[in-house]
Structure formats: structure tokens, C-alpha cells
Amino acid sequence: MSTSSIQQQSADVVIIGGGVRGLAIAYFLSRAKVDVLLVEKRFIASGASGLNMGYVNVSAKKPVYYTRFSKMSADLYPKFNQELGGDIEYERKGSVFVAESEAAMQDLAQIVVERNVVPGLDMKLLDSAELLRLEPALSPRLAGGYWSPADGGVNPLKLTRALARESSRLGARIMTGTEVQDIRVQSGRIEAVHTGEMTIATHVVVNAAGIHVPRIAQMVGLTVPVNPERGQVVITEALSKILRHTVGDYKQFADGQILIGTTNEDVGEDTQVTSRMISDRVGRALRIIPALHKARSIRFAAALRPMPPDRLPIYQKMEGISDFYVAVGHSGMTLAPITGQIFSDWITKGRSTYDLSAYGVERFEG
Ligand SMILES: Cc1cc2nc3c(=O)[nH]c(=O)nc-3n(C[C@H](O)[C@H](O)[C@H](O)COP(=O)(O)OP(=O)(O)OC[C@H]3O[C@@H](n4cnc5c(N)ncnc54)[C@H](O)[C@@H]3O)c2cc1C
């Protein structure tokens, strides 16, 4: 392509990645009246943000500081939901996690003790009868479970669409089908972002490219360790309401479909669905929720979680290049509001009120 056919754009902030993180940051920045341009190489929520359980989960998060961080984000959700128009299927009705054996029950007992250190979690162990009272569709053969009232959920597709819609309404420009190929830096300062057809003049970049965060970081000579972790899921046809809460790996959405999750696999960028996972995951689901015997599966799919080596987020203003930010990690749905708030404050005020010392990339050095 000749240089004359390259489109010239400019923006105060360029966000790379149209997943839940990039979109939440675009939304909070546009609310703060910042001129934002978000570039997404495929379409909105085409990465992990388009295929996940949609839990707003606190109880599965460790260590304690990360449980607290996740709870702070979950506590922001009611207002966030309202501001986004209330159509993201947000609920905070609590969740249940089940144990199939006495040994698994011991593990849950340990988790309950550890998590309850954080005020407001109020988790409790349930015996088999208590579990059935809470969730009558579960198998009476289960050993028990735990109840976590602080957990909730959203519909991932509705959340990402609402963020895109509201960001655009507030003035953000969102360009899909636009892949970032290079970033020009001069004397430690970002000067422009290059896509195939466009040069975007900017001094501030947020790298929220999911599993491709390392590739984008390399464009400015930085290293950020992130691995893809495959999660396969099965989605059933719409059923009448059988689950009252989210139950571990099973979530019934408002339209009645049940999402059966999920694997944690280190297979590179392979998004194939495997017959082994189907028999394993479906087999377990049938043991736990016998009513699923009658359900038909309508979709098998896989997505890649962007996963730092210690499974905690990397939220950082990078050293060495001015105004290059990294936002990556697991649990993007849970962390959406806190993520938007953190990066918006960082960019507009130069600081965040949250303690982010545990989430810097320097923790991996050496
Ligand atoms: C099966 C499964 C279940 C999960 N369940 C939950 C859950 O219940 N709760 C929860 O909180 N989290 C859950 N997660 C994790 C959650 O989905 C992710 O943490 C989150 O979606 C990551 O969002 P992101 O915006 O960081 O990345 P992504 O959604 O992957 O978005 C990154 C985007 O960047 C784009 N991109 C990459 N390179 C470029 C480039 N060069 N130029 C332009 N764009 C680029 C990609 O196309 C992609 O759209 C689950 C994940 C999986 C796979």
C-alpha cells in the first residue's frame, strides 16, 4: 500500500483490543471526556470475552488480597449495571459450589475458612440436605457444597455490547476489523499506532489485546508474560428454569440455556473442541444435575483465556516507555468495573486509589 493511501487519524488514547477490558476502559475514559479510539482486529468480544461463564465471582479468588480486589469490583457492579442501562442480566444472588466426595468436601471446608477472612464474604458449608433445599435440581448423591452470597453474574455478550454502545454514545470511536501491526516510539515516547490502513497519532496506548498482549508489548520492546489457556464449554438448548443460582461449572442464562464449563488446558492457540472434553464434562454434569439427561446440547465451543503465569491480573503503567499501559488477565467479567475505573484514573489523574502493587509485571522478573 502506498503511503498516500494510508489514512491519518489521531486520538488522545488508543486502546488495543475490543474485549471486556478494552471496552470497560474505553467506557470509563469516555465518561471522563477523554478522546478514545479503540481498535479491534476482528469484532467486539471475538476473544475470551465472547465465550465465558459470565460469573462475577469472588469466592474462587485467592490469595486474600485478590479475593478483596475481586470483591471490590463485584461491589461496583450494581451502579455499573444501572449506568449501562440495566440490560446486561446482572444479578447477585449468590453461588453454590458442589463436592462429589468427602475428600472434596474437606477442600471446600478449607476454602470457606480461608475466604471468610475477607469481611462480607460470609460463605458457609452446606450438607447434602441443605444443598438440595437451595438447589432442588442437584443430585441427592452429592456430599455437599458451599454457599457464597457475594457471587453473581452477567451475560458476557450483553455486557460487552452495552459497553461498546455506551462508549460510542459518549464519543469513543470503535474500529473493528483493524489490526495493530506496529507502534512507533521515539526517545521513549509513543508517537503513533500503525494498522494496515491507518496511522493513528497518539502518545497514550492501552494494551488490552488478551492473549496477544505479549505481541503488542514486543512492538515497544517490552516483555509481558501471558499464556493462552483453553476453556471448552457445552451449551444446551433453552430449558425451563432448573438452576436458581450459578452452580460451580454450570450456569443457566436468562434465555434458559445452560452453559456447562469448562476445561483449563495449555495447548497454545488451539481452539478446537475435543471429544474427550465432551464426554468428561457432560458426564460430570449429568452426575451433578440429573435433569440434564433430557437436554440437548446445541453448541460446543472453546475460547482462550489470557493467563499470566500466577493467574493474577497484570495491571500496569509500564516503565521505560511513557504512557504505555497493560491490562490483561483472567476474570475479566468479574473485574470489568474496577478495571475501567483504574485505567481511567491512571490516565486522567496519574494515580489510582486502589493498591495495585501486587499486579505489576516486575513480579515475574528473575
Ligand atoms: C470458558 C471460559 C470461562 C470463563 N469464565 C469466566 C467467568 O465466569 N467470569 C470471569 O470473570 N471471567 C471468565 N473467563 C475469563 C474471561 O473471559 C477473560 O478474562 C476476559 O474475557 C478477557 O478479556 P480481555 O478483554 O482481557 O481479552 P479478550 O476478550 O481476549 O479480548 C482481547 C481482544 O484483543 C483483540 N486483539 C488481539 N490482538 C490485536 C491486535 N493486534 N490489534 C487489534 N486487536 C487485537 C482480540 O481480537 C480480542 O478481541 C472465562 C474464560 C473462558 C475461556
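^ flavin-adenine dinucleotide complex. The chain has three domains: 3-51+157-226+311-364, 95-149, 227-307. Residues 3-51+157-226+311-364 form a domain with the FAD/NAD(P)-binding domain fold (CATH 3.50.50.60).
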